[in-house]
Amino acid sequence: MFPVLKIDDLQTHFFTRTGIAKAIDGVGFHIDKGEIVCVVGESGCGKSMTALSVLRLVPHPGRIVGGEIWLDGQNLMAFSEREMREVRGDRVSMIFQEPMVSLNPAFTIGNQLIEAVRVHRKASRAEAWERSVEMLRRVDLPSPEARMNAYPHELSGGMRQRVMIAEALLLDPVLLLADEPTTALDVTVQAQVLDVMVRAARESGTAVMMITHNLAVVSEIADRVVVMYAGRVVEQGTTEEIFTRPAHPYTQGLLRAIPTLSTAAEDDAPRQPLYEMGGLVPSLTDLPPGCAFCPRCSAAIDLCAAQKPPAFPLGETHAAACWLRRTEG
Ligand SMILES: Nc1ncnc2c1ncn2[C@@H]1O[C@H](COP(=O)(O)OP(=O)(O)OP(=O)(O)O)[C@@H](O)[C@H]1O
Ligand SMILES: [Mg+2]
Q: If pLDDT is split at 50, 70 and 90, which confidence band does 276 have?
């Protein structure tokens, strides 16, 4: 059986006046049916561009210049623009950070959902209405029938994001790309909305690529984790492997930077200052010849500055692109 998504050696570059920014520089990972894979990494490391590359919607002056993207065993790079339009919003859907951008303020929720069903499926208005109400119910929107007649501005941010999730799952996509889907919401609402998204995706058997900065969320919802740094995958593994046996110094740094439950809960205990990783992500137009994390890495050896490490397997599902993890042989 094919994985739902397989990305192989993807290269997406931006051709800017100051040089070529290698936003994605050889990314590879896969997502199986029904799996939830979280992609993490600091700002600018290429998470959104990876998702947009899958939809072949990289904005100008960016371009996919190499690699392969397979959806259910079909090579998307060979698809015509017309075939890609059928893929988008139908077999693959995407949820963005800011729901107001994606919902049309001039139309009721019901009109937007029904339209989406009717554009992609030969369904009657009544069938489309029924399907839409069912999806709104699945994302726990209160009084879904009444909300069908509401306009986006009449809903709270959390409700709008639920509508976006309902819309994204409306056509039973095989893959949902969720790019920081809840960062615009306040923290308590974020947790509920994510919970709803994960539950709805699991119910429909939809595979999810979820982009987030929030490692606490990752530990709750992900089956597997992909850690990106400067346009490359530096480590990937099951959620357990990444959280209990992180192998790349960058992953270890990211994990040290999250507040632990104990520091959050024990209010009278002296607080540990939050660990912050020193240094900055290098400029993507001028990447060093070796490991891009090397200038920030306290464990670096000479080889790290000279040559890019390949992904060394550490187990069946676990790999890290770090010379310190080099397997002798
Ligand atoms: N319009 C653009 N012009 C030039 N370079 C761009 C443009 N958009 C993105 N890039 C490059 O692509 C890189 C990756 O961007 P991307 O949006 O994928 O980062 P990200 O990991 O999603 O970050 P964030 O967590 O902030 O959303 C950026 O660091 C930048 O170098
Ligand atoms: Mg982004």
A: low
Beta carbon of 21 within 6 Å of any ligand 1 atom: yes
pLDDT at 268 over 80: no
CA angle 168, 174, 180 (to 5 degrees): 45
Which bound ligand lies closest to the C-alpha atom of 228? 1
The answer to whether the Cα torsion of 274, 275, 280, 281 is positive or negative is negative
Checking DSSP bridges between strand 207-211 and strand 175-179, what pairing results, if any? parallel
**Beta strand pairing call for 19-31 and 5-16:** antiparallel
**Percent of the chain residues past pLDDT 90, beyond the cut:** 69
The answer to whether the predicted template modeling score (pTM) of the entire model surpasses 0.90 is yes
111: left (phi over 0), alpha (psi -120 to 50) or beta: alpha
Please state which CATH class domain 1-32+42-86+222-258+284-329 belongs to. alpha beta
Domain ranges of the chain: 1-32+42-86+222-258+284-329
Whether the predicted pLDDT of 277 surpasses 90? no
For the chain, give the mean pLDDT: 90
Q: Give the residue ranges of DSSP H helices in the chain.
A: 47-54, 81-87, 99-102, 109-120, 125-138, 144-147, 157-169, 187-204, 215-221, 239-244, 249-256, 261-265, 302-306
- Which strands sit side by side in the sheet containing 5-16, from one edge to the other? 19-31, 5-16, 62-71, 74-75
What is residue 31's predicted lDDT score, i.e. its pLDDT? 98
Mutate to test the pocket of ligand 1, among 10, 14, 212 (most ligand atoms within 8 A of CB): 14
The DSSP call for residue 275 is P
User: Confidence band (pLDDT; 50, 70, 90) for 263?
Assistant: very low
Q: What is the pLDDT of residues 286-296, one digit of tens each?
A: 888 999 999 99
Q: Which of 13, 24, 45, 55 to mutate to test the pocket of ligand 1 (most atoms within 8 A of CB)?
A: 45
